[in-house]
Amino acid sequence: MRARNLTTAALALLGVSGFTVSASAQTAAPQGGFGINRFDPSERGSEWFVQDTLDLRGNGRFAIGLPTEWSYRSLVNYDSKGDIRESIVRNMIVTHPGFSVVLFDRLRLGASLPIQLLADGHTAYIDGVTYLPPQNAQAIGDLRLGADLRIVGKAREPFTLAVGAQVYLPTGDKDAFAGDGKVRVQPRIQAAGEIGVFLYSARIGYQYRARDELYANNGAIGQELTFGGAVGLRVADTKLVVGPEVWGSTVLANPSGTDDSVPSPVFKKRTTPVEGLLGAHYTIGKDVRVGAGIGTGLGRGYGSPVVRGVANIEWAPAFDDKPVVTDRDGDGIEDGVDACPDQPGVRSDDPTKNGCPADKDGDTILDAEDACPEVPGIKTDDPKTNGCPSDKDHDGIYDQVDACVDTPGDKSDDPKKNGCPSDRDGDGVIDKDDKCPDQPGKPELQGCPDPDRDKDGIENEKDACPDEPGKADTDPKRNGCPKAFIKEGKIKILDQVKFKTGSAEIQKAPDSDAVLEAVSTILKAHPEIKKIRVEGHTDNKGVAKSNLTLSKNRAASVVKWLVKSGIDKTRLDSEGYGQDRPIDSNTTEEGRKNNRRVEFNIVDGASAGATDAPKTN
Fold first, then answer.
1. Span 320-344, mean pLDDT?
2. CA-CA distance, 98 to 40, in Å (whole number)?
């Protein structure tokens, strides 16, 4: 009795949208479950999921594949308003291992066995009857055996026609909604073709279904008209097939013994499941094909899910229908288009050169004898130079790109220096005559630099500022440097501006005046410096707020001094930061001394450059 109730529920609620069973329905339910899955994959080797490309070429051509699909809500109970009440069959995952073999370049045999990996759902109660979900999550489906015979046309031609039949053996588990429990037979006619990048497929058939029953006054199980079609594109060097597929069926007549008052089931929405799917198949290499697609039910026919996702992987060797060609010289170019059929050569777009030995640079010297096959040259008796351009100075750089044709030189990325003698430091003295080849110097000094560039009497090696004249100093970091110089966006000073203790008054000391005079001199010499910011800093002794005020006042005092020296006030700003920006430790007297400082930061204007800066020892 329980199995009878389960079957009644399942058959009453078939469809993407399910069936709304009227409260007055009293018709007996079918015995046992039935095959709910409407996804019936094409034979292996097709480039559609359900339709067929009808590639029936070869003799003993074998293909195996594993299409796998998931469906959602393929059997649903709806109320009278059309709202979902329960999903008797909610999720279902099925894989379809199978194979096909083509014989006699015309006949294809195939087999496919559905294996249900998952099936779940919810119990429904309709008119006092309990309808159970699948009782077994895993189950075997009905084994399908098929045969198709090509009548006219061939694969990849505009029209191919084939007839065939499929037999479904009752190996499926009815209680798992994986099979009918009775034999099904389906003869069919299929057509397919390709026109350029476009391809299509169509199918119509008749399925004899031994199950011939009325259920829930809402539909029937019985003989069916089956149909399907697909259109798409073949692109990506013919490896990718993409496009939509549609398939479906309709019950042709009410079961025997049905009252005449029951309407005909033909093309009624509950007995006509229709699905659509958008998919793609891609061939990897020559023999492996993968595919994926997603679809949905297009009506309320039983077995059409709300969503169906599919994936496929198969081994389907490509059919090699290339004609046998001859190639006497074995260069891979058929004799019919080989301009030199008895001499190995290379392909060429020029029919008069196709298959002939290569002369890439067109200098009439074959590449096999050309020492410079990529560059047009001249014929010589020396195999090392035959076919190469002229190189008068024999420096290995052809005259046409040699900037010093008559003087041996070195390669260079600079066209003006390529083939010329090397001058690494660019001082105009070539390296072989340059006693200081990595230091720019003067010709009169045999390419070596002046030992005292700034003429301050201190040799460059000992001069911390070799390009700016200064005075000698026992401190190596100050030796030969001026009081002030431009470096890294600042006017650097070597001596501090000194103030009276705790005051913003500049000490009347030669050192302070000399430093500020040097800063003023730089500003006058560099009008491109539009603005500098004089910054005051203190150590951390005392109160931070007082230190901040003191630093601001000291910076302002320096600005006043510079204005009095003749610097336009608009070029000067001042700011104080107190003890917030130390450059040394405040734990030692030396560090605190370094932190008590005035800095001159260039805000707007070009720096005079690194040559004004002392070198780092």
1. 80
2. 12
